[in-house]
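REQUEST ID: PR-0412
SUBMITTED BY: lab tech R.K.
PRIORITY: routine
TASK: structure prediction, single protein chain
INPUT:
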Amino acid sequence: MSALRRKFGDDYQVVTTSSSGSGFNQAAPKRKRQRFVEKNGRCNVQHGNLGSETSRYLSDLFTTLVDLKWRWNLFIFILTYTVAWLFMAFMWWVIAYMRGDLNKAHDENYTPCVANVYNFPSAFLFFIETEATIGYGFRYITDKCPEGIILFLLQSILGSIVDAFLIGCMFIKMSQPKKRAETLMFSEHAVISMRDGKLTLMFRVGNLRNSHMVSAQIRCKLLKSRQTPEGEFLPLDQLELDVGFSTGADQLFLVSPLTICHMIDAKSPFYDLSQRSMQTEQFEIVVILEGIVETTGKSSSIFLIYGYNVTVNLILSYYSRPI
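STATUS: complete
OUTPUT:
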């Protein structure tokens, strides 16, 4: 904890001054309520009544496998290879059975389809030796078996497809920079205070690792329900909070902890809100940090989403001048 404190500094202290000059420190009351975005970035969204939802996921099978949890990925990986190996070994056994090779395996004057294949385990070992290109030399295919040659070609093609699909899926899943977000920290609370003569919404973000985030950019969304003049109710209307887009301040050089600022001016959604309405209104600020992980050497972007539930966690700091 001391190391983190030295790197990020102390938490924000809420200090406000009234017209009489007396100090005032007030935090919004914490209430247990449902979040749209959790602190760990998980979105509380469930899809329903879409129709043929399963078929839509299966139509993009590769992305579905990449998005699955690791335990399911490993299960599918092992199951697919096991079923494929047993099926192809069974096909070699069927050829040997239909040709009568199993009954003449020890006849020196008989040329079988595959030498030294006389039961299912030996057929399975022949397939593994062929697929893994081990080639012990004891079991081998002969030129007296055209159906075996066709099966060998089919086995090579299908094996390459399965290897490319499953190994590619596992490689992409391992190279995803999701865990990189664990070493990117946001301040637990956001604050509103005076900066440069203007009321400003502020929070901090810092990088624990020495490796840099290349082309880091930050965006903020305000999620709030509203009703249009036509009477339409929008339950999760998204508004953009300007955190320096016009000045380029949203492009971060994230070497040391930075303070992200949103000026509450006439264009801000918070401009018409008072202190009381800040504490009672139901809305949420979602922060999205996007960047390229330097250590991977690839253009892999990392999206870190952090939710500020303003009615719960936002510490308000007001001066005598109302918003």
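NOTES: Residues 1-25, 299-305, 309-323 have pLDDT under 50 and may be disordered.
REVIEWED BY: pending
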